[in-house]
Amino acid sequence: MNLYDAHQHLHFDQLTPHRPAIARDLAAVGVKAVVVNGTNEQEWPVVAALAREYPWVVPSFGVHPWDAGNRSPDWLRQLQAVLVAHPGAGVGEIGLDRWLLELKPDDPRVAGLRVASLEEQTEVFAAQLALAAELNRAPSIHCVQAWGALHATLKKARLPARGFLLHGYAGPAEMIRNFTDLGAHYSFNIQLLEPRHAGRLDNFRHIPVKRLLVETDAPTKPPADGLNRFPLPPAADGSAVNHPANIAVTYEQLARLRHVPLDILAAQVEQNFRRLFA
Ligand SMILES: [Zn+2]
């Protein structure tokens, strides 16, 4: 079975010491491609180097809403240059995040960041969507607590003909049709498929099968202990680290939720992945 991880961050420090083992484990579980998302200008060369080293890395370059306030004056021209230099690359991770705006300035998660307002995030997001449309690259979109604003921005934008990815979709079920009409694909990590999200599990049944993808969001979003088939030691700050080969577990959970045999789901996801990211 061929597996595809539509969204993760192999270049993050938590995974670096384990990279050779991760590469072996991914091959062993049948992973054929993973989309590695750079989230700011400093990360783009790191992601590009990974794509040179590993043929199964699909690079994606973008400015994440958390990094939008710290972008350089020349960021958009730099983004265009790195995308033109990497014809197989996507645009991501980009998007809108209203939750970020609620964090207190002394929260360690925003240390060193200049937090961009929703207006400024929207401006940065829309500029990257326009670039993705112009180059026909797949945008990988992050959205937290800003679903209405996201829909409004997407509706106004010119979008790439191949569509776009809403990664880790946790929005309302009733908006799925609106996003789907605009070209949305959806990818889910293992945490979103846990029974505690019962209220949202309907989402995974409503999404058209042709728009379904699977992700780890590694090194974040590790599976619960009983499901974690590839445990890694915790990060320096004590947080749990998700091994990208756990993508296999996510496929199994999604197949169970959709009541479809795993090999049928995997074959469909392969088609969907290749259509969006090829
Ligand atoms: Zn991500």
Describe the structure.
- There is one protein chain.
- The chain has nine helices and eight strands.
- It is of the alpha/beta class and 278 residues long.
- The strands form two sheets. The protein has a five-stranded parallel β-sheet. A three-stranded parallel β-sheet has the order 1-2-3, with helices on both faces.
- α3 packs parallel to α4.
- The longest helix has 18 residues, at 118-135.
- The chain starts with a strand and ends with a helix.
- The structure holds zinc ion (ZN).
- Residues 7, 9, 37, 93, 217 line the site of zinc ion (ZN).
The SSE string, one letter per element, is: EHEHEHEHEHEHEHEHH
Structural category is: alpha/beta
The mean pLDDT is: 95
- The counted number of beta strands is 8
As residue ranges, the low-confidence spans are: none
Query: What is the helix fraction of residues, given as a range?
Result: 25-40%
The hetero molecules present are:
zinc ion
Biggest sheet, open or closed, and with what strands and sense? 5 strands, parallel
Overall shape: it is globular
**How many angstroms separate the termini?**
19 Å
Helical stretch tally: 9
Q: How are the strands of the biggest sheet laid out side by side?
A: 4-5-6-7-8
